[in-house]
């Protein structure tokens, strides 16, 4: 596997973007509105992030059937193609034509393009052609081998991980910070000891997909390779960041992956209409910085960062993912950075919406680390300890002290 540090001619970060990604469009009233991607890209451009030294913006071609079948069943891919050509052919047995995943013309190509973008980045990371890759259009973590689920048709994260393994990576860690359990990606690698999946999410007792509890630990050949931290509804910045830092770094360091893949669904935000966590843009920015630092500590800097959920399309998604791109470019944005007048004017003209004025929610995004001690009266601490006690011993870690 190529060394991803200090390689001549290497990009510091590749960002996948092209207007073609907005063709992933379930319809006017669907929560996953493609305008969230357009506004993110516009904000990145207006902030000058795409023009920074070392940043390369690349498009992507749709993944071909052979690549899609590295993750998805042949029959399912054929069903998506049929529904894409004629949405009346959608079959609910494959999760298509449902309220969550309505079929639309061109669906196969649009979803396959997202896969192509993430796979291209993954291959570039393994080959040493880039150090960091960002596909904020990706992170479709609910799609399973045989069905669509939760707004996700094809699972680009899983396809990128498979591609990297085939290109020579020996071990890959996947960390999912979406409000929803990363069930599809976990399912693909449930019994694969080469891949560690860690998902920090709102509890399935209060949110789709109803899974992702501490005792879900992977298959018989990979027990401990799946780790889940289910947080109570209402968890805010301090609890969420405490949870992430109490579980993720320890496991990733112990696993020692060749590449770190992270999913940054920002539906954890307090304004998101679908989730029940109360996290700020500031905490999401802090988490992105932590994942970046962890990649440099544990995987020689090789970091593939993906988007995911996020349905507050003006106040939350563009700012969160612009911070992610800035972080990956090694030049984080000051939270007090004003939003460009050009971007604000575009939003007001096209969506008739007022916008925030800066890149911050004004929250300190501070937390107390696990070393402060366990509080049995705190629901977040109880969730953290359940996960640590279930998973840490399987990785040679002490759940009470590491």
**How many domain units?**
1
Q: How many β strands by DSSP?
A: 8
Helix content range: 25-40%
Rg: 20 Å
The helix/strand class is: alpha/beta
Would you give the CATH topology?
Arginase, Chain A
Total helical elements: 11
Average pLDDT taken over every residue: 97
Rough outline: globular
Low-confidence stretches: 2-6
| Architecture (CATH level 2) name | 3-Layer(aba) Sandwich
Portion of residues in beta strands equals: 5-15%
End-to-end separation in angstroms reads 30 Å
Largest sheet features: 8 strands, parallel
Order of helices and strands: EHEHHHEHEHEEHEHEHHH
Pathway: Ketone degradation; acetoin degradation
Keywords: Acetoin catabolism
Protein name: Acetoin utilization protein AcuC
Domain Histone deacetylase: 30-326
What does this structure look like?
The protein is globular, with a radius of gyration of 20 Å. The protein is built from eleven helices and eight strands. Helices cover 35% and strands 11% of the residues. By secondary structure, the chain is α/β, with parallel strands linked by helices. The chain has helices at residues 35-46, 65-68, 74-85, 107-127, 156-166, 183-188, 237-255, 281-298, 317-328, 341-351, 379-391, and strands spanning 11-16, 55-58, 130-135, 172-176, 195-202, 226-231, 259-263, 303-306. An eight-stranded parallel β-sheet has the order 2-1-3-8-7-4-5-6, sandwiched between helices. The protein starts with 10 loop residues before the first strand and ends in an 11-residue tail after the last helix. The chain has one domain: Arginase, Chain A (3-Layer(aba) Sandwich), CATH 3.40.800. The longest helix is centred in the first third of the chain and has 21 residues, at 107-127. Pfam families: Hist_deacetyl. InterPro entries: AcuC, HDACs, His_deacetylse_dom, His_deacetylse_dom_sf, Ureohydrolase_dom_sf. Pathway: Ketone degradation; acetoin degradation. Belongs to the histone deacetylase family. This is Acetoin utilization protein AcuC.
């Amino acid at each position: 596997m190529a060394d991803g540090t200090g390689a001549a001619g290497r990009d510091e970060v590749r960002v996948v973007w092209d207007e073609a990604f907005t063709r992933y469009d379930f319809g006017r009233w669907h929560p996953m509105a493609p305008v969230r991607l357009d506004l993110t890209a516009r904000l990145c451009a207006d902030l000058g992030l795409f023009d920074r030294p070392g940043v390369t913006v690349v498009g992507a071609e749709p993944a071909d059937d052979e690549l899609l079948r590295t993750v998805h069943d042949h029959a399912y891919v054929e069903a998506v193609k049929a529904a894409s050509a004629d949405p009346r052919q959608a079959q609910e047995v494959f999760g298509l034509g449902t309220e969550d995943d309505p079929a639309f013309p061109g669906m196969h190509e649009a979803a396959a393009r997202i896969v192509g973008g993430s796979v291209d980045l993954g291959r570039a990371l393994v080959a040493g052609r880039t150090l960091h890759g960002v596909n904020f259009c990706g992170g479709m973590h609910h799609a399973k081998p045989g069905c669509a689920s939760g707004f996700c048709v094809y699972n680009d994260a899983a396809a990128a991980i498979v591609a990297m393994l085939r290109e020579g990576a020996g071990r890959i860690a996947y960390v999912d910070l979406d409000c929803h359990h990363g069930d599809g990606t976990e399912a693909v690698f449930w019994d694969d000891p080469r891949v560690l999946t860690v998902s920090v999410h709102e509890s399935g007792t209060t949110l789709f997909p109803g899974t992702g509890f501490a005792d879900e630990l992977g298959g018989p050949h990979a027990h401990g390779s799946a780790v889940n931290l289910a947080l109570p509804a209402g968890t805010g910045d301090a609890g969420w960041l405490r949870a992430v830092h109490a579980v993720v770094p320890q496991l990733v360091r112990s696993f020692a992956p060749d590449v770190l893949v992270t999913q940054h669904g920002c539906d954890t935000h307090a304004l998101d209409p679908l989730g029940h966590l109360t996290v700020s843009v500031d905490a999401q920015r802090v988490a992105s910085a932590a994942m970046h630092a962890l990649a440099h500590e544990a995987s020689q800097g090789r970091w593939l960062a993906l988007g995911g959920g996020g349905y507050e399309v003006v106040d939350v998604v563009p700012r969160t993912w612009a911070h992610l791109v800035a972080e990956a470019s090694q030049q984080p944005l000051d939270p007090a950075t004003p939003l460009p007048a050009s971007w604000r004017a575009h939003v007001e003209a096209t969506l008739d919406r007022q916008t925030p004025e800066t890149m911050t929610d004004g929250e300190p995004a501070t937390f107390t680390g696990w070393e402060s001690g366990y509080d049995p009266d705190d629901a977040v601490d109880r969730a953290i300890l359940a996960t640590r006690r279930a998973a840490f011993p399987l990785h040679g870690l002490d759940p009470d002290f590491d």
